[in-house]
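> @MW can you paste both from yesterday?
MW: sure, first one:
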Amino acid sequence: MPAPGHQGVPVTAAVVSLYMWTMGILGIGLVLIAGIVMSYLSPPRSWDPWFKRMLRVWFRILFIRIVTEGTEKIRKDRTYVFMSNHVSLFDVPVLAACIPVFVRGVEADRQFKWPVYGFAVKRFGNIPIDRSSVHASISSIRRAVRKLREGTSIVIMPEGHRTLDGRMRPFKKLPFHLVRESGCDLVPVGLSGLFQLKAKQSWLIRPTRIKVKFGNPVPAGEIREMSVEAVSERTRDAIRSLIERP
């Protein structure tokens, strides 16, 4: 799938994108700052429903319509590892707004150094993953497993990087060591429409419809009986089947 180009951008598309960037940065900045303030007043789990609503309001301001499917498969009394394809800058807020249980993200450690965002995700309890060495990676996995065993679901994008052409990249092995060690069910999630919204190599943002589709949870008992490679392949096939092509 070719990415939107940079040449000959229509004036309307440029104006719309400038609006989206301006309102997007201002809006998400306000939401994150509000979340930081709330994190000093009460635990994130207590205000998570409010935070999800604020993210959905932000998307409506940007004329982005989000449709979810399969949320009835997610039990509120269970802890899960959610895995999705990685498409756009908008993936994280989309998942944060749509996953119907309290969830924290596993993100590259460099993102924790970004202004405002990095401080916010630290306060929210997200988990940095350091791929610089095997020892650092194992430490990140253990921290994520502890959080899962404490009853907090985790979301991770096993590709590690955003797609360049709309197709999924190869999966990293680390997330599947995590899910096998955690003893939690794995929920595949397919994100559709995000490449059309904002491709990695284009500055244009196009208001569009986004689909978030949750697959059937893979039981922890089945995962324990499978190799890391088999879990990865099964998850990849499941996510691919959930993605809707334009």
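MW: second:
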Amino acid sequence: MAEQVFSHPELWQQLLALVLASAVVMGSPGPATISVTAVGAAFGLRGSLRYASGILLGTVAVLLVVATGITAMLTSVPTLTPLLAVASAAYILYLAFKIATAPP
């Protein structure tokens, strides 16, 4: 399996282009950049580095999911789309509950 993946240089070129484009997007001002700045101001360098590492790991995880073809899987198995939507909504509601009930 690994030999098949490594034998396609065009795949690696596309993946490199995706990573480079995402690096530019991640460096541009946006919610993540502003929140890292706010965390740094509130909790110092160590807190902001941990926070930025979490944002980076989350972004890499999403990019890997996209790069591995989750879209192709969802289009080939359409019954998974509503299940993924329900699971996503449940997770967002869980996060909202945790934020709402967190101590100040």
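> thanks! Residues 44 and 71 are 39 Å apart (CA to CA).
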